[in-house]
Amino acid sequence: MEFVQVMVWTLCVISSAASGDGCSLILKPPRVVVGFGQPVSVSCEAARPVRVLGWESAVSAAHTQQGPSVQWKVDSLIDWIDEPICYGVFFTTPRQCEEKLNLVLYKSPDSVTIRTVNHSGPMQEGKEYQLLCEVQNVAPVQYLNLRWYRGPTQVYNRSFSDLTSASPVQVSSVLVITPTKADNGARYSCVAELELGPEGPQPPLAVTSQTLRASVHFPPVFQSPGAESVDLTDGGEVTLNCSAAGNPEPAYSWWAPQALQELREEGHAVLASSSLLPGTYTCTASNTLGKKSKHFTVRAKEV
Ligand SMILES: *[C@@H]1O[C@H](CO)[C@@H](O)[C@H](O)[C@H]1NC(C)=O
Ligand SMILES: *[C@@H]1O[C@H](CO)[C@@H](O)[C@H](O)[C@H]1NC(C)=O
Ligand SMILES: *[C@@H]1O[C@H](CO)[C@@H](O)[C@H](O)[C@H]1NC(C)=O
To answer: Which domain holds residue 164?
Structure first.
């Protein structure tokens, strides 16, 4: 007898079954967000006398005779099923109706990784590069938001609401960058965030990639370009600072109007001495991408 009634209902659903406000079926709660492997239970209640009340689902179907409520319950949800439907067969019209449960089964990504596409090692200033963020095994992808960061600043975000798969998928996002010397040392990362709504985990579940530290090659540049003048003081030490930014790290060479002990040790950016003579000192900072010179005029102490 029970079996027959369920069959009747199934046939009627194909023709026409009411749902929504006139349905008299109330799901508690109406929306569930459940993590992969977690338990779930939802009750379906009929607001008017019912002949049969039941759940149709690929896992854990159930029904009752004339009962006011029936529960859909799974101890550990691990199947990427269609949303379960609660149906009712009533004594009065509308005789059949159904209510679909808003069920979101989610799974946090196995991994979130970031890398450069078709490139390894330092980048060159002004050239275009692609950074790729890959997210493995995440569901449901429609709720995923992928955010790109440069240091603490969000530079790009991408959602996947156009995709429909309910089961876990792999997705990726590409960030195109044209690095300048300011990007040397910049740390890029991406964050995969599942925004599942108020029924989901709070704060939203987020997995962050490792950090990709950009190394950008550029020729030496002086922070204060041009020539510098320095006055000699009474027995005081004079410091000539030729430090330049550059990647690879610049090497330095000095030209002085006198022989200096300090200059025998090659390669220092700073020349500090208490025995400098007046004159013009020249420093050259160089790396594999170029060289720049800077002149220092050391002036005699005014008498
Ligand atoms: C990466 O290199 C492969 C093989 O050299 C090429 O087929 C592919 O189009 C390249 N991808 C990009 C994004 O440049
Ligand atoms: C994502 O980026 C768009 C611009 O592309 C921006 O308008 C939006 O606020 C960003 N969303 C979030 C959540 O940061
Ligand atoms: C030389 O100049 C650089 C850059 O302006 C600065 O970081 C460094 O501290 C200076 N060194 C000395 C010894 O003054």
So the answer is: 111-214
Over residues 105-116, the pLDDT tens digits come to 999 999 999 999
Least confident of 35-44, 122-131, 266-275: 266-275
d(CA 143, CA 134): 16
Report the CATH number at residue 180: 2.60.40.10
Ligand 2 pocket, mutate which of 153, 155, 156, 157 (most atoms under 8 A from CB): 157
Do 144 and 74 reside in the same domain of the chain? no
Q: What does the pLDDT look like over 203-220, one tens digit per residue? A: 999 999 999 999 999 999
Contacting residues for 11 by C-beta, under 8 A, at least 6 apart: none
Q: Residue whose CA is closest, atom 14 of ligand 1?
A: 118
Which of 270, 273, 283, 296 most suits a substitution to test ligand 3, by most atoms within 8 Å of the C-beta? 270
| Judgement on whether residues 285 and 210 belong to the same structural domain of the protein | no
> Going by CA atoms, what residue is nearest to atom 10 of ligand 2?
157
Among candidate residues 214, 241, 271, the one where a domain is terminated: 214
Ligand 2 contact, 157 CB (< 6 A): yes
pLDDT at 194 over 50: yes
Helices (H) and strands (E) in the chain, counts: 1, 26
Instruction: Report pTM.
Output: 0.79
Q: So what's the pLDDT on residue 14?
A: 40
Q: Are residues 194 and 120 in the same domain?
A: yes
**Whether the Cβ atoms of residue 159 and residue 144 lie closer than 8 Å to each other:** yes
